[in-house]
Amino acid sequence: MTITIYHNPACGTSRNTLAIIRQSGEEPEVIEYLKTPPSRERLVELIEAMGTTPRGLLREKGTPYQELGLGDPKWSDGEILDFMLAHPILINRPIVVTPLGVVLARPSEAVLDVLPNPDIGPFTKEDGEVVIDASGKRVV
User: Fold this and answer.
1) Which of 72, 92, 122, 134 could make an S-S bridge to 59, C-beta 3.0–4.6 Å?
2) Where are the alpha helices (DSSP H) in 51-133?
3) CA distances to 44, 94, 118 from 17, in Å
């Protein structure tokens, strides 16, 4: 089974998501999307598979979102895609692809919904937040 994560190692949510995948017993294909951005065609496929829009996948924090005026509704989906391809940091992450679906893993535990083995045992995020307790129950 192939699992792919579009990953940014500088992002805590992305690191936590990767750790959850690995704890499930899978070793994903890790694509550092800032170094190897998806093609336009692949980005469109991911957006459609997640049931969102290009604007819905835009990341604001720590990006040129404000400077580029991307909050303005004048930009078409195609133009938003152009901005994402020119500035991959605008693509929100992590995106995880599994045979069970595609998800923007924000929060990181959203990845559990598309993992073939979501029963990963206890899991605590880097910041100390408990996601799955010692009895295997997901903490909400």
Assistant:
1) 92
2) 77-86
3) 22, 7, 12
> pTM here?
0.94
Is 73 designated active site? no
User: Which amino acid does the sequence have at 2?
Assistant: T
- Say how far apart CA 23 and CA 45 lie, in whole Å: 27
Domain locations in the chain as residue ranges: 1-33+95-140, 39-45+52-92
Alpha-carbon distance of 6 to 96, in angstroms, equals 6
- The SS3 call for residue 90 is helix
In the sheet that holds 4-7, the strands lie side by side as 29-32, 4-7, 95-98, 101-104
Residue 8's CB: how many other CB atoms inside 10 A?
Answer: 21
Rounded distance, CA 14 to CA 5, Å? 9
Q: Is 44 helix (H, G, I), strand (E, B) or coil?
A: helix
Tens digits of per-residue pLDDT, 32-80? 999 999 999 999 999 999 999 999 999 999 999 999 999 999 999 999 9
Report how far residue 95's alpha carbon sits from residue 44's, in angstroms, rounded to the nearest whole number: 13
Greatest extent of the chain over all pairs of C-alpha atoms, in Å = 50
Instruction: Name the catalytic one among 3, 5, 11, 47.
Output: 11
